[in-house]
Amino acid sequence: MSKVYNWQLGREMEYPHDAAYPQEQFAFVFNLNRCIGCQTCTMACKSTWTFSKGQEHMWWNNVETKPYGGYPHHWDVKLLDLLEKANPEGQIWDAGGKKDVRKPYGTFEGQTIFEAAKKSFQANGSNPALGYLPTDEEWSAPNIFEDSPRGPKGVKGQVTHTDGVDLPEHKTWFFYLARICNHCSYPACLAACPRNAIYKRPEDGIVLIDQERCRGYRKCVEACPYKKSIYRPTTRTSEKCIACYPRVEGKDPDSHGQPMETRCMAACIGQIRMQGLVRLAADGTWAADRYNPLYYLIHVAKVALPLYPQFGTEPNGFYIPPRWVNRGYLKQMFGPGVDAAIEKYMAPDRELLAVLNLFRKTDQIIFKYEIKEGPKVFENEIRGKKFEMFNDTIIGYGRNGQELVRTTVEEPLHERPSQHANSI
């Protein structure tokens, strides 16, 4: 085991390999307040990558209804239970202290899946990460418990899901959690592969499986805490989300040679998704890039949080948590930054409101934004806080500084002339 720095945990942790960081890192932000569970992203991915024989059960992109849904079934509940057994009542955060880019959420004092594996019943030398192998039945029914605020008897939803919450949180609730591979900085799938068939691309940090080297041992399936490495029986190899890397490379016919967002991002109806490429510092933390929209959302506004950061893989997928959900549940899923993130999102300042308007305005990756100030168009009070809305113009730029998109905070009203008797 080597010592690597995990900025999401605010400390060094143990990992089977030495630290090595890409030039840029593929990352994304999903706004769960907007997701309508339409599964358009799911089908865009399915029709592009996993429509062949042996891939029937593969959903590299899926949208599951929390707290009872999951694909494979109850993947997170099972892993949280394993971590609790390995470190009873020890999975806690010290959220105090100075917040900076090296520890924005404080310090996690529990055990990651790599550290817990050494001390658990799995510590037999063959499992560098705590995990489990899902059964065939658990890979069935990817939409299980969809739109279900109440689960059946005997099925738990990770943490207390009863009453005892105050408005604006609902006593009975559910929300949609869209998921793809997080292309982690410290992938458990990579750590567990006995064939060294899994690697992170040095140019963008995308995690791939070399199909020539893979022998289908399924160690990656067992180790990945998010269960995004999936075994294909017809080829006896494992496959996973490839982050649509031809599009990221600018090789899509519509990209004009510029980095482009993935198929699932581009197809999103609810405009919940934004994908980017972020620069990394020598220690693996994000290099300061104040006007990169992802850097702003994650490190400046701090409204977007990593999914289960306590697993220790340093996922590069971030989520703006849903404002109506039980806070205890959300803190277990996204860490101790939940309260501040929701408060910020519910009464957004001028800059945050403008940046949120960039979501899904272009299929090309935005590397920088600029805001041109406009007039005040609305003023109100939200939960005791003053809220002002300005009709600012926000401009998104590509890698080479070319303008990709220009939009205003207040959507313009277009009146179309009637041309036919049945025109709408």
Describe this structure in words.
It is a single chain. By secondary structure, this protein is α+β, with helices and mostly antiparallel strands. The protein folds into two domains: 2-346, Alpha-Beta Plaits (2-Layer Sandwich), CATH 3.30.70; 354-408, no CATH class. It is built from eleven helices and 19 strands. Strands 12-3-14-13 form a four-stranded mixed β-sheet. Strands 15-18-19 form a three-stranded antiparallel β-sheet, with helices on one face. The N and C termini lie far apart (65 Å). Residues 160-165 have low confidence and may be disordered.
CATH fold-level label of the largest domain: Alpha-Beta Plaits
Uncertain segments:
160-165
Task: Look at the structure and give the mean pLDDT.
Answer: 92
- Termini separation comes to 65 Å
| Number of domain units | 2
What is the succession of H and E elements?
EEEHEHEEHEHEEHEEHHEHEEHHHEEEEE
Number of continuous helical runs: 11
Structural class: alpha+beta
By CATH reckoning, the class of the largest domain would read Alpha Beta
Main sheet overview? 4 strands, mixed
Shape: globular
Write out the strand line-up for the largest beta sheet, numbering strands in chain order.
12-3-14-13
Quote the beta fraction: 15-25%
The assigned CATH architecture of the largest domain is 2-Layer Sandwich
Number of strands: 19
